[in-house]
Design goal:
With about 210 residues, this protein is mostly beta strands. It contains no helices and 18 strands.
Length: about 210
């Protein structure tokens, strides 16, 4: 089908797809969030939310599609359910957020910041640690985190404890890890200017 979705008054900046429930979530430059649902062959606005304080920098549904985590530039975090209920919220003081990622088992949430850091939280919103980012050693220039992405495990694993979590910066520095606490990541210098990264979930490669 081909349908133009009308509801935003500003440029759409972040989108997230819920494959289990077939819902699309969008957010624009003014911070307005819309959840779209398909009904009788057409897309309709199911839920609308606007915090009116900051812009959304990342949205991600968990693997089961039951929860969405939304991060705002000013450090606010909201986790909600697929039926629109707010599960918990948090203000990360002194932190500007840039992206978010769930672990495949839904027990861990990773928050990327504009200060080259990744903060590790549990699914209830409790701080656990900061990720060890070895790929930025000897990097002195200003860099931007462009992606945190976890292989979802849908096609199985080539071997036990193989790397399945990828982190990359715009200067091409990247590390792939067995878990968020892996102190021996595979370090890669792609030599490219990177805009974003994604796993190929069929061949278990990040690109």
């Amino acid at each position: 089908m081909n349908q133009t979705l009308e509801g935003h008054s500003g440029a759409v900046q972040v989108i997230a797809w819920n494959d289990h429930h077939q819902k699309l979530t969008t957010s624009d430059q003014h911070g307005l969030i819309i959840v779209w649902m398909l009904y009788k062959g057409s897309w309709y606005e199911e839920m609308i939310n606007n915090r009116n304080k900051s812009v959304v920098r990342g949205m991600k549904w968990n693997a089961e599609g039951g929860k969405i985590c939304i991060v705002y530039e000013d450090g606010a975090v909201i986790v909600g359910s697929v039926d629109g209920n707010r599960l918990w919220g948090k203000e990360l003081k002194g932190v500007n957020l840039s992206c978010v990622e769930w672990s495949p088992d839904g027990r861990t949430i990773l928050f990327g910041t504009t200060k080259k850091e990744i903060h590790v939280y549990d699914a209830a919103g409790n701080f656990c640690s900061k990720m060890n980012l070895q790929c930025l050693e000897n990097v002195t220039e200003v860099v931007k985190l462009v992606g945190i992405t976890w292989y979802n495990g849908a096609e199985g694993y080539a071997e036990q404890e193989c790397p399945c979590l990828a982190v990359c910066f715009d200067v091409g520095r990247m590390q792939i890890m067995k878990a968020e606490s892996d102190d021996g990541p595979v370090l890669i210098d792609t030599g490219m200017q990177v805009m974003c990264i994604r796993w190929n979930h069929t061949d278990r490669k990040s690109g």
